[in-house]
Amino acid sequence: MIKNIFRFNLIDSTTIDAYAARINDEYKNGQIGYYHLPSTGLKTVDEIYVYEKSLSYIKNIVLVGIGGSSLGVKAIRSMLKSKKQKRQLYVLDNVDPQSYKAVMDDIKFEETLFIVSSKSGNTIETITIFKCILDEFKPKNLSKNFLIITDSGTNLEEFAKNNSIKVFNIPQNVGGRFSVLSAIGLVPLALCGYDIKELLEGALECKSRYIDKNDTSLMAKAYHYAIHRNAHINVVFGYCDRFREFNDWYVQLWAESLGKKKGFKRVGRTPIGLIGSSDQHSFLQLIMDGIKDKTVTFIKICESTEVAVPGISLKGLEECDFVAGLSLNRLLNAQCDATAMALVQEGLSVDILELDRLDERHVGFLIFYYELLTSAVGVMLGVNTYDQPGVEIGKRILKTMLKK
Amino acid sequence: MIKNIFRFNLIDSTTIDAYAARINDEYKNGQIGYYHLPSTGLKTVDEIYVYEKSLSYIKNIVLVGIGGSSLGVKAIRSMLKSKKQKRQLYVLDNVDPQSYKAVMDDIKFEETLFIVSSKSGNTIETITIFKCILDEFKPKNLSKNFLIITDSGTNLEEFAKNNSIKVFNIPQNVGGRFSVLSAIGLVPLALCGYDIKELLEGALECKSRYIDKNDTSLMAKAYHYAIHRNAHINVVFGYCDRFREFNDWYVQLWAESLGKKKGFKRVGRTPIGLIGSSDQHSFLQLIMDGIKDKTVTFIKICESTEVAVPGISLKGLEECDFVAGLSLNRLLNAQCDATAMALVQEGLSVDILELDRLDERHVGFLIFYYELLTSAVGVMLGVNTYDQPGVEIGKRILKTMLKK
C-alpha cells in the first residue's frame, strides 16, 4: 500500500505515546469531525449514487467553490488523471473574469450541473460567481441544474430549500480544509465517475494503521517537525505531474492549520510543494546550498512500466545512454532516490513515501495520512489546528472599503 | 505601464548608489548576457519570423525542455492566455510517462514541430524524451519536424547539423533561468503567434527605467530584501489565474539564483508564489498569524471591465450584495487591496505592482523587472547569482546508481 521510509531517526519514547493518546482523545471525543469521515462517509455512498443515477441528462459538472471547497476535489481529480472521467469537471475557484468566461464558453446550460459549495454559505467569491451564473442563463427552475453543498442551517441551505435545489450537508464539526472526504469531495467526485467507496476504504485503512493499531511512526515524524524549529519549511516533493494539485491541497492544509498566534507568540510551519524531476532544475539548488531550514518528503509511485526509454544511441550524445532500457517511471524514481541521497548527504531531514500506485484507495490513504500528520503537528505545537482567525481582518477591510 | 507602490520605507542612500553602480558594471562589462537580450533579441526577430513563415504545414508545437528551457515559455503563454494561439503549444518538461503519452495521443507527427531545447545539450530528461519521440515516430528525415535550441558548440548542435535540423543558439553567457528573452523563449512564442517584438520592447523599457535612467526604487527594494534576514521568505501574490505559471518561473529564478553556499556559510531567500483571491483561503492565514518571516509583493492588473457582478439579491444572502455593480476584476483588485492593508497592519513588508494590462509589452517589462531584482539581491547577498553548483551532486549519484 504505502510505505514510509525515514532517512532520519524517529524517537520512540513516552513523549510520543503521550501525544498519540491526545490524538486518540481528539478522535474519540467526537468534536473534530474529520476523523470520522471515512466511516460515516461510507454510509452516504448509496445516497450519492442514487442521486447520480437521476442525472442522466448531465454531461458537465461546474464546481463553484474556493479554498477547502475545491482544493481537495482538484487534488484527487488530478491524482486520478489516468482514469477517464464520466463527466467533464470544471472548477470555478476564483473571481477571475477570464477563467469564468472560459468555462461559460465551453458548456451548455441544459447539460450542466452547477455545484455551489460553501461551508459557511456566504463565501463572497462563491455567491458572486453563483449570481453571475444565474444572470448569465436566467433559469426559471433551479432544481435540475443546481446542487448546493453547505453546512446545515446556513442561509444558503435555506435558499436551496426555497428553490427546490437538492442539498448535501457537511458535518458542522468538519473544517473546510479537512472536508474532502465529506459531501464536499465525495459528491463531485462520484458524479465524475471516481470510486468514492474505495477512496473512503483507503482513508479507513490509514486511520486503522495509525489510530487503531497505533503505528507511532506518524506521530514520531510529526514530533520531528514540531521540535526542529530551525527546519520550519516542510517541502513535499512529488515525483510525477499528477501530484501538482495535491501540493496545492497540502499547502492549504499545512499553512492554514499550523500558522497561528499563541498569545503574543507566533508559530507556524511553511509548506512548499514541488514536482520531480522538473523542480530539480528549479527549487533544488536552494534546498541543497541555501539555509538549512527545510525538511523534504519525497512521494513516488512504484508501479508503472509504461514508456520504455528506447535503446537508441544518438551520435555525440552517448553520455545520455546510461538510462537506456529503463521505463520513464523507473528513471523518475531513480532521480527521486538520487536527489534524496544528495539531500541526506547534506544533513537534511528526508523521508520517502512510496505508493504502490495512484488509484482511489491509495489516494484516500494519502489524503488521510496528511490530515492526521497535520493534527499531530498541531497538537505538538500547541495551536488550534482547526480555526483560521487571521483571514477575517481582510474580509472586514474589504467590506468597509466597498461600502464607502 | 507598471507602477510599484511601496508600503514600507525605501532607503535612499549612498549604499544604494554604490550597489546600483555595481549592477551597472555587471551590465556594461558584458559578462552577464541576459542584460543585453532585449536589444540583441530585437535583431533576431526578423530571422525568427522568416523561419516561422516556412512552417505553414505545422499546426502544433511540442516544446521538449526542462527548467529554464520551459518555465519562461509557460509563464508567458499563461499570462497571455487571453490571446488566441496561432498554433497549439504542448510542453514536455518531465519524464512523466502519463504526461508524455497524453501529448503523443493528441498530435499528428506530420503537422507537429518538436523543439528540443537544452542549453548544455545533454540534459538527461530532454534527450531521453527526444529519443522516445524518435522511437515513437521513426522519422527518416528530421529536418521538417524538429528544431534544436542550444548553446553553440554543444554535441546537440553537432547532432542537429549532421541531421539537417535547424538550430537557434542561446548566447553562452546567458544562464538558463535568465534565458526566456533569448531564442529559448522567443522562437516557440513567435511560432505560436505572440508578438515577440513587443515583448522585447517592454523589457527594453524596463532596462531603460532602472539602468539607463537610474530609477533606484528597484535597488532599494532589493536592499530591503537583502538586509532583512528574518524576512527570508519572499511571497509573490498575483491577483488573477494567469499568474500561476509566472509564479513557477519566479520560484526557479529566485531559488536557484539566491540559494548559495558562501564558504562555510549558507545564504538564500525562499520564494513562494500565490494566486489571489483563491489563496486568501489557503496560505494567507500563515502570513497573517504565523512567524513574521515573509515579505509580500502583490501583482494586480488595472484594466478590465469584463463580467459585471449582477445586481441580483438572493433571499437570505443579502449580506453578499455589497459587491454588486463591480466588475469581477474590480472585486479581485479590491480584495488585493484589502489583503495588502491587513498585512501592513500586521507590520509585514508589502508592495504592490500595478500593471495596466497583461499584453506582450507589460509581460516583457515584468519578466525583466524580476530578473534585475534577482541580480540586485544577488549582488547584495554577495553570492554568484548565475551558477547552480548544488544540483550536480544528485546528477552524479544518479549516474553512479544506474551504471551499477
From TrEMBL, chains A, B:
Gene coding for it: pgi
Active site per the UniProt annotation: E256, H281, K395
Catalytic activity: alpha-D-glucose 6-phosphate = beta-D-fructose 6-phosphate
Pfam families hit by this protein: PGI
Any one of the GO BP annotations: gluconeogenesis
UniProt function note: Catalyzes the reversible isomerization of glucose-6-phosphate to fructose-6-phosphate.
One GO location term (cellular component): cytosol
Pathway(s) of this molecule: Carbohydrate degradation; glycolysis; D-glyceraldehyde 3-phosphate and glycerone phosphate from D-glucose: step 2/4; Carbohydrate biosynthesis; gluconeogenesis
EC numbers, comma separated: 5.3.1.9
PROSITE patterns linked: P_GLUCOSE_ISOMERASE_2, P_GLUCOSE_ISOMERASE_3
Catalytic EC class: isomerase
Name used for this protein in its record: Glucose-6-phosphate isomerase
InterPro entries, A to Z: G6P_Isomerase (IPR001672), Phosphoglucose_isomerase_CS (IPR018189), SIS_dom_sf (IPR046348), SIS_PGI_1 (IPR035476), SIS_PGI_2 (IPR035482)
An example Gene Ontology molecular-function term: carbohydrate derivative binding
